Amino acid sequence: MAKSWGIKNLYFYMVCLVTLFLFVGGAISAVNSAMRLALPDQPNIPLTQVYSRDFREPADQDTFDPPPLEELKEKRAAQEQQRINYSAYTKRSMLNSIALMIIAAPFYLLHWKQVKPELSKRGARNEN
Predict the structure, then answer these.
(1) In whole angstroms, what is the distance from residue 76 CA to residue 21 CA?
(2) For residue 56, what pLDDT is reported?
(3) Residue 76 sits in which domain range?
(4) Are the beta carbons of 124 and 4 closer than 8 angstroms?
(5) In the chain, where does DSSP find H-type helix?
(6) Are 19 and 109 within 8 A, CB to CB?
(7) Burial 51-81 (b: 16+ CB within 10 A, else e)
(8) Domain-located, residue 7
């Protein structure tokens, strides 16, 4: 049994372990990014709620002065740009995770296939 743990075989097992961790980490990250795309966690509060008398904190005065229309349009444009940036970042994150999985899988398969012949060679040597 001790002879089957040569340096070459240990190398193959370590590479398999690391690439398996990379693949699982990429899969978890890809699922997380997909969920963020499907169910965004950033709040999308309509500006009418922000400036409505019912949703504001009580003020000292009883009158409500709505902001100018230009300010509302600027805030809506900034909110929309933030949503677009968030979506783009999440898509990039998901593509990075998928790329990590695509790169790790062949390395794992290649090294795992090398472990089996190495074990069978050592087993044949031990029997002789």
Answers:
(1) 42
(2) 56
(3) 2-42+69-127
(4) no
(5) 7-38, 47-51, 69-127
(6) no
(7) beeeeeeeeeeeeeeeeeeeeeeeeeeeeee
(8) yes
